[in-house]
Amino acid sequence: MMNNRVVRVLCLLLLAHSAFQQTSENTSSSREKNEKRDASNAAIEELKKQIEDIVLELNLLKEQQALQTDPVKKTHHAASDDCIAKGGTLSAPLSGEENDQLSDYVRRSIGPNQHVWLGVNDMVTEGDWVDQSGSALRFKNWETEITLQPDGGRGQDCAILSVSANGKWFDESCRGERASVCEFNIV
Ligand SMILES: [Ca+2]
What we know:
7-stranded mixed β-sheet, 46% helix, binds calcium ion, 4 helices, Mannose-Binding Protein A, Chain A
């Protein structure tokens, strides 16, 4: 998909380049020169549009490579180990924007009624929610309008993101089995 786009842009670039050369080398009437300049400008505009499209596609590819869904349901511990084995970590959004992106990504990759494990837990000290490195969370997105999460106390020390609840978080038993998303640093 990307390769075809790149080839098309290269062709347009060559066209624009030769149109420029013809414009500057041609000694014919000024009207013909103007026409050629117009054609050349149109080619450049087209080129700009193609480049913008490529940037959009590239960003989408980056997102797809940075997040990888595992639809197989497993315990929090198993999901975390599997991410680490692949060189990543269980996903843990650091902002509302990242949370929306993750929720969107899960909806598109495995469906609208899914829940995924987050790399977020309070196993060590009840109520102190930390990421997989043990650092305090900078961002939380608990569901608090209907059920006042986290509400599971000592029995629920792992967090899930619920796509059907618009990306809100719930605490769950770590022994439950859920799908998961690994996060990779690729930039
Ligand atoms: Ca807890």
